Amino acid sequence: MFLCYDVITMEINERKLEELKRLEEKVKKLSEKERTKFFGKFFVGVISALMKRLIRYEGYSVTKSILKREVTEIGKRDAKNIMKIFGIKEKNPENVSRSLKLAALVLGFKLEVIGDETYVKECPFAVMAKETNEPLLTEICDWYCNGMVREIVGEEYFWEGFHNINKEVPECYYKAVKR
Q1: Fewer CB near the last or first residue (10 Å), C or N of the chain?
Q2: Fold of 43-178
Q3: C-alpha–C-alpha distance, residues 69 and 91, integer Å
Q4: How much is the average pLDDT of 62-80?
């Protein structure tokens, strides 16, 4: 009786393994852009859902304060990692800009140079802010970037974000502002 069960279990496991391999091959055929877009929408969707719940139960001001503090800390942590990974030693505004671009590229964001500005095209936060009509989502990028700025050059500078979520393809860019 147990031998029959073991054989059936092995057949089921083999079918599951074959199915898993077929699914992995399908996913591998997706472009990096498609995978990144999927991940970005998932990630921002989770943040959006949590943010809505926090606003509902804690209020807008408390939610904004919590998110700002936590996302700024994530930006500081990521700045350290980006500098270490890419061998950036000097702590200056040029390396802040370089680090922000590297972080955006690592996260899979699409960057485009227009004039003398580098724009983030289709930022998942800007896209979701447009879809949900919740501009607080775009501030998450500001807090993250300014966490990176504080880690690299301290309080002397901040990066001011400009988010155009009303364009067909939302875009964002940042300008360095000396305090």
Answers
A1: N
A2: Muramoyl-pentapeptide Carboxypeptidase; domain 2 (3.30.1380)
A3: 22
A4: 95
